[in-house]
Design goal:
- The chain has one domain: P-loop containing nucleotide triphosphate hydrolases (Rossmann fold).
- It contains eight helices and five strands, in the order βαβααβααβααβα.
- Helix 1 packs across helix 8, helix 4 crosses helix 7 and helix 6 crosses helix 7.
- It is globular and about 55 Å long.
- The mean pLDDT is about 90.
């Protein structure tokens, strides 16, 4: 079972992914957490430190290269794993960033999405950009402007892939988000089992 978590910065993707895997392990299930970062946080910190801002296309090229490499490695690991695989971020995230920056989708990322194994569930953790901004400021490890978060929030919804996402309220407490994730996972697993029975 492969689940992908997406959402704007501050939506709680990493926290939710870790909690879901921990809950599955506590139940005695085999579960694996894989992260598909693009290095945006480190790049933004370096840019702020040295006062150098990369042009949007160059920044995207660097981020996309890192993201694609991580996604390919993650899928290679997931292919060998028998159990629940939770991916924190995916190529959808880079496509949303491109949309938010006014950059073209390109051909490589959409092509890779079609060629890679289709996740059983792509969850979009929906959160108000203001709340996401407050969370980012509170953790103090990186910086994102409210305007950029709002643009990214809208960009996700503009993706043609968004229609296939399962949208969950990420403005709730961590416990509530985890409960909704587990419920959604159970429904997806039941549906998958029903399809398997029909094929027998």
């Amino acid at each position: 079972m492969l689940i992908v978590l997406t959402g704007i910065d501050g939506s709680g993707k990493t926290t939710a992914a870790r909690a879901l895997v921990s809950a599955a392990l506590a139940e005695g299930r085999d579960a694996l957490l894989l992260s598909n970062y693009a290095g945006r946080r480190r790049m933004s910190l370096l840019s702020a430190r040295f006062g150098v801002q990369l042009p949007p296309r160059l920044a995207d090229a660097v981020e996309s290269t890192i993201r694609v490499a991580n996604v390919l490695i993650s899928h290679a690991r997931a292919r060998r794993f028998r159990g629940l695989v939770v991916m924190d971020r995916h190529l959808h995230c880079q496509l949303a960033l491109r949309e938010a920056k006014g950059l073209p989708r390109g051909r490589v990322l959409p092509w890779l999405l079609r060629k890679l194994p289709t996740p059983d569930l792509v969850v979009y953790l929906d959160v108000d950009p203001q709340l996401a901004h407050d969370r980012i400021m509170a953790r103090g490890t990186d910086e994102e402007s409210l305007a950029d978060l709002t643009s990214l929030h809208d960009a996700y919804r503009a993706l043609p892939e968004f229609a296939g996402f399962t949208v969950l309220d990420a403005g709730a407490t961590e416990q509530q988000v985890l409960a909704e994730l587990r419920r959604t996972l159970a429904e997806a697993e039941n549906a998958r089992a029903s399809v398997a029975r029909l094929k027998v």
